[in-house]
């Protein structure tokens, strides 16, 4: 009888510990993130490191990420972090083009992590990528990649009309969460 009592008591402590752990994890979720209709709406902003990172446009002009975003303020933005050497990026271009047709009021910004500017500009022409293009001479794990927690490309980020991150990560252009997010923040047609 004593063994049964001790076993039940131990199970009770384990159950309480699990419940406390679950509540702790729930409390540590970002307060600015709200889930509605299978869409995560976040008021999260880009870090100063991210905003100050300098890119190059096809004409060779330098522009900060902050100014890239400001150029499109007032419209939703789909950011595609990609490279011409990335087979998944190339494979995803048809779906991205479908997305562009479905959401024409959205701005499309392509951030390339190509190894050379020449490969980058060749790929833009070869795949007929429509949108704003910027080149960053960095690898995925360098400063910019770390600042956006980049672990895979392609990486799609959705920014709302106010410049907040509405969706931090999608790896395919037809991701349900990406589409639901665009539906939620898309201006009326």
Automatic annotation (TrEMBL):
Matches recorded under Pfam families: Thioredoxin_8
Subcellular location: Cell envelope
Residues of the Thioredoxin domain: 40-187
Keywords linked to the UniProt accession: Cytochrome c-type biogenesis, Disulfide bond, Redox-active center
Presence of the UniProt keyword Flavoprotein in the record: no
Name of this protein: TlpA family protein disulfide reductase
